[in-house]
Automatic annotation (TrEMBL), chain A:
PANTHER family hit by this protein: PYRUVATE SYNTHASE SUBUNIT PORB
Organism for this UniProt entry: Phytohabitans aurantiacus
Residues in the signal sequence: none
Start and end residues of each Thiamine pyrophosphate enzyme TPP-binding domain: 75-238
Pfam families: TPP_enzyme_C
Record's protein name: Pyruvate synthase subunit beta
Automatic annotation (TrEMBL), chain B:
Database matches in InterPro entries: 4Fe4S_Fe-S-bd, 4Fe4S_Fe_S_CS, DPD_II, FAD/NAD-bd_sf, FAD/NAD-binding_dom, Helical_ferredxn
The name this protein goes by in its record: Glutamate synthase
UniProt domain 4Fe-4S ferredoxin-type: residue ranges: 477-507, 508-537
PANTHER family named among the record's database cross-references: GLUTAMATE SYNTHASE [NADPH] SMALL CHAIN (PTHR42783), GLUTAMATE SYNTHASE [NADPH] SMALL CHAIN-RELATED (PTHR42783:SF3)
Pfam families xref list: Fer4_20, Fer4_7, Pyr_redox_2
Record carries keyword Metal-binding: yes
Keywords for this protein: Iron, Iron-sulfur, Metal-binding
Record has Plastid as a keyword: no
Length: 332, 539
């Protein structure tokens, strides 16, 4: 089910565009007339992964819906940095209500459109991991179990970054946040807590669940397009590194997302009706350490001394993902 | 801009918020010097002509190539391609087959009959080029393009110099050689064969400038005690004889003395002339041999035998006496006192060539050092208006170096004739492998050029190495990483979280919208070619 990879045209389909490819085989993002759903002037930090992902996702959804799309946004970075009164960066119809009710509002929009027989207009809900995995999770699960016709996208930056980098249910073990300080014998976020929203979504046996990152644009665009081709409740979980909360260099945002996938710590896969259908194989396998080292939230694993015990536990989690999602078994 | 559907209120756009004010560093597009260009003795813009070839614009690619080198088809056969040795892709998988693509473009030009028009206004200046080898012909080509009248005089019957009389036909087919030389002559260059120039000073009276490129045609000699009946030839004489269809009698058993490319050429030629036993005797080791490794390998494939660490001490009737050598601590070969007899119907000396300096005897201002004519960075000798290049000046003595000399000399001669200084373009910083983001390049192993069966190689002078067809040449061109130069992959345009990269359209690349660029540097990190730099803003 994975998109057709262009085998060899210098950069194949790895880069955003490719002058050697016919226009219809290029990414939405290479199109000079792309929607730019989230336009310039927004107040996201330098190198924000979430701002990038939101444009990638919405531009692709706009193309798939032929420009007839309504967006519902949870509270969070994405909402705050895009709409400080009286400005907006959105060039799509966009609603915001509360932190925890975005999936419910999106369900309501879908219901209203259905009542008006407006089948041409599609609904996309979106939020960060706080609004999705924690606060809005009841509403999201309800949206899933009812099968409301919404694509819900979670931009996962692994914490409450907007309010000062607090831990969320998506924060990885050992990561330092303002509520999980790097102190004591087991510094940072504890092991054994947190949850995988994509796997829980799969347990609802909804038509489509997928994960993606900003490091593989063609894969992300394909998954949005695939999700938009289906109806019912669909879920897309996108890893978006956060220079502020992760303590990484702004210019490394995409590179860090790539290392997350190439180490196996963030598995990229898709599932239909609760069954895993494809996973994106690792192309250049790296140890998790290469991923961790670039982030100050894991600095206590390397200074003042290297915490091999903790790094090994994270590596074990990556190895578990590789096995579980068949990330090193050739074509996924 | 088209208003999105379902928006009824006039809302303020965030475009009013110029986030560019946050920036402390800005991305700047750079055209860096790719290692291939840096290494090319002829100064070709390899990256650029590969870029043109990548989307099938072969004629544009060829014309880009012709800006620096009038012999693509010849280069694609005889150049030792230092570009490929330097190629960054060699650190990733295998170097791009630049030489093979060059040959394809050169052959395509001959097939299609592409020519280079002389569009410069005639200057009325007359330049004499002495020597119709690669250096002289390249200079003639560039001078003609600049609008000068060019006369080329050569002692030989036909033009080409060492390309014709030194390089065997199995490496460079004569139809290709003729086609590329004829193309230059057809541009209005006057060629005067069998007109040796003995006095450069006298020539200056008739011409505004003179370019000397007579090469190094004198075979070096060595003192070897030889019997009266010993048959001793020099390498250039053998190769010239074959080129002129008067092959010398070498016999069945041939010993070649020397370890350079010429020695390999003679040994391989001897095999083709019917020698059952062609032996190369060289006093040092294989590693220290000046010959190109592929030449040694191809010679061995054709049955040439090598005697390393051996010198010839005497030549007699049907034999030569050789002495074993060993390397001392400094790596210099020392005699061991162990002797051996090798059967030999003839012995060919291939121990180097010297320049016939008599041509500059009449020019008092010309300095000769270490047997070669000394020139400045402008290729001018000590005599105003007399320039020199190729093998007769300090040089690596390859065809490509000679072509590069011809180009450089032509640039300076042109400036000299116009009475203004020539400023060679500044060299941009080198495009380092470390700056590439190789993730974005498809995995693609190199293409191998077809080669003639070894069995057929010893019986004919057919070209040993074949060319690529269009598909494989295109594939090979597309293996180029475009180091340090934008190739319009749209990555910067895509990865900017602030939409601050403007796509200007095909061939026009991109611009940074400094009103909104926050200077995050993602475009810099994600540029596959390392063609964007992040530079601090002025305070």
């Amino acid at each position: 089910m994975t998109p057709t990879r262009v085998k060899f045209y210098q950069t194949g389909s790895f880069a955003v565009g490719n002058r050697l490819l016919p226009a219809d085989l290029r990414a939405v993002q290479s199109d000079p007339t792309r929607t730019n759903s989230l336009t310039s002037g927004h107040r996201a930090c330098q190198g924000c992964g979430e701002a990038l992902a939101a444009r990638y996702v919405l531009d692709a959804a706009m193309r798939a819906s032929k420009g007839r799309l309504v967006t519902v946004n949870a509270t969070g970075c994405l909402e705050v940095f895009s709409t400080p009164y009286p400005e907006t960066s959105w060039r799509v119809p966009w609603l915001h209500s509360l932190f925890g009710n975005a999936p419910a509002v999106a369900s309501g929009v879908a219901a209203a459109l259905k009542a008006q027989s407006r089948t041409d207009i599609r609904v996309l809900g979106q939020g960060g991991d706080g609004g999705t995995v924690d606060i809005g999770f009841g509403a999201l699960s309800g949206m899933f179990e009812r099968g409301d016709d919404v694509l819900y996208v979670c931009y996962d930056n692994q914490g409450y970054m907007n309010t000062g980098v607090q831990r969320s249910g998506a924060t990885p073990p050992a990561a330092r946040t303002s509520t999980t300080q790097a102190v004591g014998p087991e510094p940072g976020n504890v092991f054994g807590q947190g949850k995988s929203a994509p796997l829980i979504a799969m347990a609802h046996e909804i038509p489509y669940v997928a994960t993606a990152t900003i490091a593989d644009l063609r894969d992300l665009e394909y998954k949005v397009e695939r999700a938009m081709a289906l109806h019912g409740a669909r879920y897309l979980h996108v890893l978006v590194p956060c220079p502020l909360g992760w303590g990484s260099t702004a210019g490394q945002t995409v590179a860090i997302a790539r290392l997350a996938t190439q180490s196996g710590i963030f598995p990229v896969f898709e599932a239909e009706d609760g069954v895993l259908t494809a996973s994106t194989p690792i192309r250049r396998h790296v140890p998790v350490e290469e991923y961790l080292r670039l982030q100050a939230r894991f600095r206590h694993l390397f200074e003042p001394e290297r915490r091999a015990d903790v790094i090994d536990r994270i590596q074990a989690a990556a190895d578990h993902n590789i096995e579980r999602f068949h990330l090193l078994s050739g074509e996924g | 801009m088209e208003r999105p559907f379902a928006i009824t209120l006039e809302v303020g756009s965030s475009l009013a918020n110029h986030t560019g004010a946050w920036r402390t560093e800005r991305p700047v597009y750079a055209d860096k010097l790719p290692p291939c260009n840096d290494a090319c003795p002829a100064g070709e813009n390899v990256q650029r002509w590969l870029y043109e070839a990548e989307d099938g614009h072969y004629e544009r690619a060829w014309r880009e190539l012709m800006r620096d080198n009038p012999f693509p088809a010849i280069m694609g056969r005889v150049c030792y391609h230092p570009c490929q040795t330097a190629c960054n892709r060699g650190k990733l998988d295998e170097a791009v087959g630049i030489n093979a693509v060059e040959r394809f473009l050169g052959d395509e030009a001959i097939r299609q009959g592409w020519t280079v028009p002389v569009t410069a206004a005639p200057t009325g200046k007359r330049v004499l080029v002495v020597g119709a080898g690669p250096s002289g012909l390249a200079a003639a080509y560039h001078l003609r393009l600049a609008g000068h009248e060019v006369t080329v005089r050569d002692a030989g019957r036909r033009p080409g110099g060492m390309m014709r009389y030194g390089i065997p036909a199995y490496r460079l087919g004569r139809d290709v050689l003729d086609a590329e030389i004829d193309r230059i002559l057809a541009m209005g260059v006057t060629f005067e064969p069998e007109t040796p120039v003995t006095d450069a000073a006298a020539a200056l009276a008739d011409f505004d400038a003179v370019f000397l490129a007579i090469g190094a045609q004198l075979s070096r000699r060595t003192d070897i005690p030889a019997g009266d009946s010993a048959r001793i030839l020099d390498a250039l004489g053998v190769l010239r004889g074959v080129a002129e269809d008067e092959p010398p009698l070498l016999g069945r058993r041939v010993v070649v003395y020397g370890g350079g490319n010429t020695a390999m050429d003679v040994a391989r030629t001897a095999r083709r002339l019917g020698a059952t036993d062609a032996v190369v005797v060289y006093r040092r080791t294989r590693q220290r041999m000046p010959a190109q490794p592929f030449e040694v390998t191809e010679a061995e494939e054709e049955g040439v035998r090598m005697h390393w660490l051996t010198t010839i001490t005497a030549a007699g009737n049907g034999t030569v006496t050789v002495e074993k050598m060993r390397l001392d601590e400094t790596g210099f070969p020392q005699p061991t006192g162990e002797f051996e007899e090798l059967p030999a119907d003839s012995m060919v000396l291939a121990i180097g060539q010297d320049v016939d300096r008599s041509i500059v005897d009449g020019l008092a201002g010309v300095r000769v050092d270490s047997g070669v004519v000394q020139v400045g960075a402008d290729m001018m000798t000590g005599v105003p208006g007399v320039f020199a290049g190729g093998d007769m000046v300090p040089s690596e003595r390859t065809v490509t170096t000679a072509v590069g000399h011809g180009k450089r000399a032509a640039r300076y001669i042109d400036a000299w004739l116009r009475g203004r200084p020539y400023q060679s373009p500044a060299r941009p910083p080198r495009a380092a492998f470390e700056r590439l983001n190789t993730w974005y390049y498809s995995d693609a192993p190199a293409t191998v050029r077809p080669r003639l069966d070894a069995a057929r190689r010893t019986s004919t002078f057919d070209e040993v190495v074949g060319g690529l067809d269009e598909d494989t040449a295109l594939f090979e061109a597309r293996r180029c990483l475009s180091c340090g130069n934008c190739f319009e992959c749209d990555n910067c345009y895509g990865v900017c979280p602030d939409n601050a990269v403007i796509k200007l359209g095909p061939g026009r690349r991109y611009a940074i919208d400094l009103e909104y660029c926050k200077g995050c540097g993602i475009c810099v990190t994600e540029c596959p070619a390392g063609a964007i730099d992040l530079v601090p803003e002025e305070p």
